[in-house]
Amino acid sequence: MCGIVGYIGEREAYPIILNGLKRLEYRGYDSAGVALYDGTHIQVSKTKGKVADLESRVASEISTQGKLGIGHTRWATHGVPNDINSHPHYSNSGDLVIIHNGIIENYASIKQELLNRGYTFTSDTDTEVLVNLIEEIKKQHNVKLGKAVQIALNQVVGAYAIALFDRNKPNEIVVAKLGSPLAIGMGDDEFFVASDATPFIEFTNNAIYLEDEEMAIISKRKGVKVRKIKDDSLVDPYIHELALNLEQIEKGGYDHFMLKEINEQPSVIKDTYRGRLLADRGIIKLGGLEDHIQKFLNADRIIIVACGTSWHAGLVAEYIFEDWARIPVEVEYASEFRYRNPVIGEKDVVIAISQSGETADTLAAIKLAKERGAFVYGVCNVVGSSISRETHSGTYTHAGPEIGVASTKAFTTQITVLTMIALRLANEKGTISKGDYMTHLRELEMIPSHVAEALKSEPNIKEIAHVFMDAANFLYLGRGYNFPVALEGALKLKEISYIHAEGYPAAEMKHGPIALIDEQMPVVVIAVNSNHYEKVVSNIEEIKARKGKIIAVVTEGDTVVRNLADYVMEVPRTPETLSPLVTTIPLQLLSYHIAVMLGKNVDQPRNLAKSVTVE
Questions:
Q1: DSSP code for 516
Q2: Which pLDDT tens digit goes with each residue over 565-593?
Q3: Could you read off the pLDDT of 302-335 as tens digits, one per residue?
Q4: Catalytic: 2?
Q5: Which among 2, 48, 67, 549 is annotated as catalytic?
Q6: φ, ψ dihedrals at 552, nearest 5°
Q7: Which of the listed CATH numbers 3.40.50.10490, 3.40.50.300, 2.40.128.460, 3.100.10.10 matches domain 456-605?
């Protein structure tokens, strides 16, 4: 979950690396560091804290000269966040310097062996162990750096993306990947290294994405040579043409990326169905689905694997697939699925959902499902990501870069894709009437305008946030399609405001949570028009009888719940099956404004990182 940046070429490396670290800070922000080589000396500066703290330290500590450099922003695994454990790390000789994203699981035994050979360590990290292992192999085998890296990585267990160089070979960076993402930007006589393409998008739109168990030697003179770590065989890498642009990764005048991304949802939902949904012609066409539609139609069941917000999107999809397509669905936490010896057959379809396409647990679940013979379909946002390469087929969302750690537009675009898949299957199977099918196509096409309308309630939501910003706990309640939205709303509040919040099916309130309700407990109830409306009204009555404070999400024009609730947040009238795309909007805004009022860093909440690439 750390961010890696590197540069080798004819430009000054430091400005490129610093700017790249700022763009990758969503991947980790408890410490940061940089190593620069000026042709004579390696200059290293690193510090606990954010990239801004590093920038201040560099200004007073080291020379920023050099056309070769690497940088790192950290999300701590081994070793607490402090200056010493920050990356980069030197080898004992001072010749090698490394940055690392991932975990070396057998580092303790390697460290003991190196201690026996006289090595010393200043940090608590597994990364310092790895760089010294590489140095020891380089000495013992009398090999070049690239070969030493290959031998060392065949001895370690775990996940990694690394970049390192040797001060005795100043025209070369060695990189390698297993489980953590790594991209190489291909410029004119210059090369960039990063955890994703955002640090170098203004310099080149060509990139190589390393596959697992691949390494590359990047040389100013010889270019990029990619090899397999296991057997040292050469690889002919595919060069991707990037679709990103610089404007997409800037804030665009908003105070935070999260607010920008909340407000982008009308456009990105439209982008996600553009060219795929032709409502006036009754057509849904998803390229990744069409060639494999029989796999879905003949499936015994669909298993959805995901983590966090993507898991909540999967829960919404469970309702949709079972309701429309009449296919049994199970939704699994990928972190549990991968370890519990699940029963998977060749007639199962596994849908893996991930914004980044790099989620470690979801990747492991994919590999397990493939080993058991299941067909695996990916839904992710990042082109060229590991999940897009590991799955048999899939569909990209078109959310654009999501920088805020708390997912917003990823959730709604994932639901959009899953809704289109379910409608396509239902129409093919004949489990939905032609009239209902056409109605839902037209309604789905109108979702961007409904979301835009819901966003207009922000001033009212901001006032509600001010009332409840000091609450210690929240309950979120929903029924049917909006139960997952209640879970997602609670997660958003926890993530960025650090207020304890729990989501429940509204009917489950009587089975425990009702004991928590008193005049100090705000309860957010999703009470839009649905088949469960009267039941939700009864739940609200029960809460009011116990003096709970009701914040209700209601359909515009509602009077019944409005008269019962203390505060209401209106959304446009939407079919129940599509309502999660709209009801989630006020919950995103509520959590955002509470967090801002509490002075929290909404884009970089404590202890969290955007892409969870380690267990």
A1: G
A2: 999 999 999 999 999 999 999 999 999 99
A3: 999 999 999 999 999 999 999 999 999 999 999 9
A4: yes
A5: 2
A6: -110, 135
A7: 3.40.50.10490
